Amino acid sequence: MKTIEIDDELYHYIASQTQHIGESASSILRRLLKCETTTVPSMVVANVASQTSIKLPATSLLSLIHHSNYIDEKKTVNRFLMLLSALYQENSSRFSLAATSLHGSKRRYLATDEKSLIDTGNNTKPKAIPDTPYWVVTNNNSARKSYILKTIMDNMELSPSIITTVLDNFIAKAGE
Amino acid sequence: MKTIEIDDELYHYIASQTQHIGESASSILRRLLKCETTTVPSMVVANVASQTSIKLPATSLLSLIHHSNYIDEKKTVNRFLMLLSALYQENSSRFSLAATSLHGSKRRYLATDEKSLIDTGNNTKPKAIPDTPYWVVTNNNSARKSYILKTIMDNMELSPSIITTVLDNFIAKAGE
DNA sequence: GATTGGATCGCGGGGATGCTTT
DNA sequence: TCAAAGCATCCCCGCGATCCAA
C-alpha cells in the first residue's frame, strides 16, 4: 500500500464514484481508469452532470454507440453487455426495477447472482454485466438480446427516439 | 488536500503516467480520468513527444501493458497485434528495418501486403497490424509470437530491461 | 539426437436454427 | 390444427497447443 495526496475536489469526485459500501480507493480508481474501455458512460455522465448540473438523459448510451470500443466490437454478446452496463450507469435504480420484472417463460433474464440464472434453465450461459452487480442470460439469439434491451429501455422510460436509435444500431451490427 | 491509500501496482502505474517532472498526483489523475479517448498508445506517444520534445523510449509500450485494453484482452493474437502496433508507433523506421529482416525457413513473418504472407506458407492466417501498413503471420503458437516480438525489439534496440518486461508479461498472460 | 519451424487439428465460445411449449 | 414465442441444441469458426517435418 502507498499513500498519495490529492486535492479536495478530486477526492470528492472519486468518493462519489463508490459502487459498493466500503469500496477501496484502489478499486474505484481502477474502474475509473478503465474509462478508455467500456466504462466511458459513467465518466461522461459524471463530467457532464458536474459541469452543467442539468440531467442529460441517455448521454452515456449515445456516447457509447459512437465509441470505437463499441463500434469495433464484432461480437453481439459484448455489445449487448456494454449497452446493459451503460443503461445501469444511466440510472441504476430504474435499471434494477426494469431488471427484476423481466423474464421468459422459464428463464430469468437478469439477476444479481449467477446461480438463479443457471437454475432457471439449461445452458443459459450467464455473464456478468461489467461494473454492475448484475448478470444476464446469454445463450439466445440476437433477436432475443434485442428484445431484452428494448424491454429494459422501455421500462426505464427512455425517450422512444433514443430507444429506436440504439436498437436499430444494435440489430444492424448483429446481422452481418 | 486529502490523502488516499492505493495498492502498489496502481501507484506505479499512476507514477508512470507523469508528464512533467514533479507533476502532482492530482494533476496526473485529472488527466487520466479525462482520457475517454481510446487510442492511448499512439496518442500517448504523440502527446509526450510534442510536450516534452525529449525522446522517452518505449513510453507507448509500457503504458500499453498497463492499459486495461491490453490487460483485459485474453486472446494472445490480439495482445500480439497491440504490441506490434505500439512498436510501430514507437519508431516506424526502425520497426520497418526490423520487420524486413525477419522470417522463418519458409514463411515471411511481416510484410506490407497480405499476399506475400499467404504465398510463403499454408494457412498462415495473416492479420493486419492496426494503424500500421504491416501484416503479420498469425498461425503459430505463443512461443513463436513471443520470438517475433523479441526479435523485433532486439533489432529496434530497445533497452534490454524493457524487452524483458514486455516479454515476461506477454508470456505470462499467454500461458493461462 | 536435438532443435527449430510449419500447419494440422482439437477445443471452446457464440448465436442461428430448429424444436418445444404455450 | 396452426401460430407465436421461447428455449437450448448444435454447427461454425477462430485460436493456438501439439505434433510432425525439416
Automatic annotation (TrEMBL), chains A, B:
SUPFAM superfamilies found in the cross-reference section: Replication modulator SeqA, C-terminal DNA-binding domain (SSF82808), Ribbon-helix-helix (SSF47598)
Residue ranges constituting the Replication modulator SeqA C-terminal DNA-binding domain according to the UniProt record: 63-167
GO biological process, alphabetically ordered: negative regulation of DNA-templated DNA replication initiation; regulation of DNA-templated transcription
Keyword DNA-binding set for record: yes
Cellular localisation: Cytoplasm
A Pfam match: SeqA_N
Listed GO MF terms: DNA binding
A Gene Ontology term for the protein's cellular component: cytoplasm
Keyword terms: Cytoplasm, DNA replication inhibitor, DNA-binding
Domain Negative modulator of initiation of replication SeqA N-terminal: 1-34
Function: Negative regulator of replication initiation, which contributes to regulation of DNA replication and ensures that replication initiation occurs exactly once per chromosome per cell cycle. Binds to pairs of hemimethylated GATC sequences in the oriC region, thus preventing assembly of replication proteins and re-initiation at newly replicated origins. Repression is relieved when the region becomes fully methylated.
Family in the record: Belongs to the SeqA family.
Record's protein name: Negative modulator of initiation of replication
